[in-house]
Structure formats: C-alpha cells, structure tokens
C-alpha cells in the first residue's frame, strides 16, 4: 500500500486540498456536465443531461461516485450548494493525494519526486477538479506504481490490470497509453504469454466490462455498452471534431509544452540522456516510447485538448524527477537551490494566473444566481446567452428554477448544412431572440451573458436593468467571450 509513507501523503494532501481553494476558475464544461450535473440529476431528480447521456456514450461509473456522495448529503440534510460544489472536489483531492504517494513510491521515494509532483502547475490546476481526466490521471499513477517494472523488485501481481480495465471502461482512449506498457509486460514477465493473457488480462478485462455494462444498463434504463457507443461516435463518426479541430502537430507544438511548462527542460535533458544510454535505462526507454506513441495516436484525432494529455504527466514527471535526483547528487547546494527556485516559480506563475484570474466569472456568477433563484423559485427563469455549457448549472444552483441555455448538439442526424443553436444565435442574435421570445410572450426574469454581447441583444434588454457585472478574464479566448459576465434583471421582476 502507498500509505506506508504517511507523512508524504499528508504533504500531498495539504497541496491538493489547498488547490480546492486556490483553483477558482472555469476550465472545461466536462468538469460539471459529465460528472456533477449527471450526479445531481440522479439524486435530486431535476437538472439537465447532455446528449451524451441520452445516447449512452459515457459510463455512469464516475457520476455514480459523486451521486453516492450527494445521496449521503441528501440523507443527512447536508445538501447545501457549497457542499455539493466542494464535497466532490475534496473527494477527488484525497484520491489525487493518494495517487501522488503512489507516484512517490514508484519513482524510488526521492525528494525530487515529491517536489516535481507537488509543484507541477497543470496537476495543481486539475488535481482537485471533478474531471474524468483527473480521475484518469490519478488512477494511472496508482496503476503505474503497481506495474511490475523489471529490476524494481515489485511482486508480479495483477492489481494494475484491474485499474487499467477500470480506466478503459471509464475512458476507452486510455488504451493508447497502456498498449505499449502491457506489451512490455508480456515480454519481460516470468509467466508465460498464455498464462498472462488467458489467466489475467482476459478474465479481469471481461469481469470489469460485464460489471460496467450492468451498471450502465441499469442507469441508462436499457442495455447499453457505453465503451462501444463511445468509440462508435468519437472514432467512426468523428462527432468530437464538431467541438473544434486542431492541426496535426497541436499536441507537439502547443499541448505538450503547455501542460509541462518549465518542466519541459528537465524532461528534454533527461530524454536525451536516456536515448544516449539506452541499454542502461530499459524502463525509461519504454516510458519515452509510450509517451511518443500516445501523443502520435492522439494527433490522428482531429479534436485535441490539453486535458487529454493529463495521464501522460506521471510518466513525464517520473523521467524528469529521476534525472533531477541523479543530477543533484553531484551538483552544489547553490545550483540545486537555483534550479528548485526556477522550477517552482515557473510553475507558480501559470498555476496562479489560470487558477485565480483567467475565466473565473462564469463560476463566480453562480452564487448571485443561486441567491436570486432561492428567493423566488417560481418566478425566476434564467436565460444564459453564452456559448453552450459556459457555466455549471444545477450542481451549483441546487434550486429547481427554470433555466435556458444555448445548446450545441452535434449533427447527430446528418442533416445537411446543420447549424447548432449557439451558432444560430450568434449569427443573428436579435433574430433568434424574436423567434424564441415573441413580443407578447413571457420574457425570462434574468439574462446572463458576456459584456461583448450586450450591444447585439438590445432588442430584448430594453426592459431590463443590469444588476451584476462580474470579472471573467483579461484574455478572452474567443470573440464570443468577454472580460465580464453581466446579469440583467427584468425591470418588472
Ligand atoms: C422541477 O421543476 C419542474 C418545473 O417547474 C417540475 O416539473 C419538476 O417536477 C420539478 N422537479 C422536482 C424534483 O422538484
Ligand atoms: C401584443 O401586445 C401589444 C401591445 O403591447 C398589443 O397591441 C397586441 O394586441 C398584442 N398582441 C397579441 C396577439 O396579444
């Protein structure tokens, strides 16, 4: 068990719990819409499910974890909005801290391992978020620590195969990273190939798959294999590219350097040393190969995101932390402090900016909206005129008010010249508003949008007054996003 190093666990726990309070910004919609919102709907019976859940391309395993927590809150009448928001993050932070200790053990219980993991800006930024990728990264670290790396004296148990199987049903794309490592396992294991495949991989994989299909079918209400549906939609029909297409080299030129930041330097130096002395570092060579293989595989998919690289982070930090601890044995104290200082500052800056400053308005706005909704549940109706899923929803409101937001369903029925609702709206806001809110119809009590949109929706806002203006970001990532989130209230409300 990784808990043998209890003091180190406490250090990591402090860091991960701190990140709950120091990371206050919006990252991606999936953090809420593929986890908390689903759990909220399961437990409290109201809320939105996105199209993924109607088609059954996601496994219910992760939402069920949060739903279990929500259920406990509900039973104990502790289901306040702040518990619903922070409870799941505390849960994930604890698991992340545990996975950090596992990483520490795996990489040879070195101080540099503690430092590299605790200071990694991207892991600080994501380690306490309710993203599936965060869970995936934590489970990956745990699994890597149980992997029977040759020369490490780890007993060859199959516990890591259970975790890989679980990872696969949660997020099938993780196969890309584990295929090279599992093939490596097959080549060095003392057990025969037949024994490994028929006695371990296949039965464990099947057992986990059957359990997950059972679980998903119960939650979905009919028989469904979400892994299969996921692959069908994302790979065969390439629905994901509806949400943005990046050039093939994006992971190499943007994604990978960005999530590593300053850690790219020790990683690059370590990689060169490993490649030069290949025969002396067989495990590290396989790790490098796995990183390259995974990035290459992901590069073939048109839709690319930073968070997809998250499970590679333990591999990268393993390589760089081991290199740093070998280097520090010969280096002077002064040099060690300089390097530590540079790595620390190089990570603190992006962690602070992205965690505290950039894109915080869409989360901050939920609190005043919750207060408005609670004081007048019946009459309140919230209209979000923002790119789809710009904010969380019922997991943060926790009031059964009427809400309406612009949807962005992909073209599931292969309609020609398909335009989603959000694009339709942005092409001509006044036209869309006239169609959806006819002059004599009831208007929503509140309109929530970015400041940049205000001049385009004057047709509706004449009967409203601005009641909140909330800072969002200095660097809007698209023309539809502004520096402020504004809330307008109908004057006769
Ligand atoms: C939530 O509100 C909607 C619309 O007012 C209503 O139909 C539904 O029954 C409510 N759900 C719960 C669980 O209160
Ligand atoms: C809509 O409202 C206007 C004035 O506010 C009124 O003159 C008109 O008759 C109304 N139309 C309908 C269909 O109710």
Automatic annotation (TrEMBL):
EC numbers for this chain: 2.4.1.-
Name of this chain's protein: Mannosyltransferase
Sequence similarity: Belongs to the glycosyltransferase 22 family.
Any one GO molecular function term: alpha-1,2-mannosyltransferase activity
One GO BP: GPI anchor biosynthetic process
Species for this entry: Exocentrus adspersus
Protein's membrane topology: Multi-pass membrane protein
Keywords: Endoplasmic reticulum, Glycosyltransferase, Membrane, Transferase, Transmembrane, Transmembrane helix
Localization of this protein: Endoplasmic reticulum membrane
Record-annotated membrane-spanning stretches: 7-27, 53-73, 112-132, 160-183, 204-228, 248-273, 285-302, 308-327, 334-354
InterPro entries attached to this UniProt entry: GPI_mannosylTrfase (IPR005599)
GO cellular component, one term: endoplasmic reticulum membrane
Main subcellular localisation: endoplasmic reticulum
Database matches in Pfam families: Glyco_transf_22
Top-level EC class: transferase
